[in-house]
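Reviewers of the previous submission asked for a worked example of the structure-prediction workflow described in the proposal, so we include one complete record here. The input consisted solely of the amino acid sequence. No template or homolog information was supplied to the procedure at any stage.
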Amino acid sequence: MSYYSQEELKKIGFKSIGSDVMISTKSSIYDPEMIEISNNVRIDDFVMLSGKVIINSYCHITPYCMLAGGEPGIFLSENVTLAYGVKVFSQSDDYSGHSLTNSLIPRHFKKEIFKPVNIHKHTIIGANSLIFPGVTIHEGVSVGAMSLVNKSLNAWTENFGIPVREIKKKSKNILNLWNLFQNEKK
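From that input alone, the workflow returned the following structure tokens.
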């Protein structure tokens, strides 16, 4: 993988960019003035970021992910991983047939949905999962591969399915490991 240098990242025009950020030269960045990236973030090949996106420390966005933050935004807290092919949307057209759809149609003919997406710390989203507008994924959540996340998820749970459903409670041992990791960095 080839990554932008720190100097090249500064020239892209992000709203803010931290240190130790690795962004693949094969990624696509739209609306960089709306994107904030903290320290120690890795964004791999063929990732697409657009609109308001805020990525906090120790997040990894793996190949082929798409974060379409639009106007309401997508917010990733610390230590979030999006596995291969995850798609996250903060806005969508209304598909009920009561309005027109398509980005080429003027807004007054459409009934768009605009809701932020929040993904809290210590969360992993499995490969090819889809997250809809308005979803909050609370701390410590695991989402299984190919899940359709159309509702908010409880903290410290494992979830899976189309649509997603809670499978079981999850261990909080990650918190002990995170504290050890934080202390080791000092």
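The CA atoms of residues 129 and 146 lie 4 Å apart. We consider this example representative of the routine output the project will generate in years two and three.
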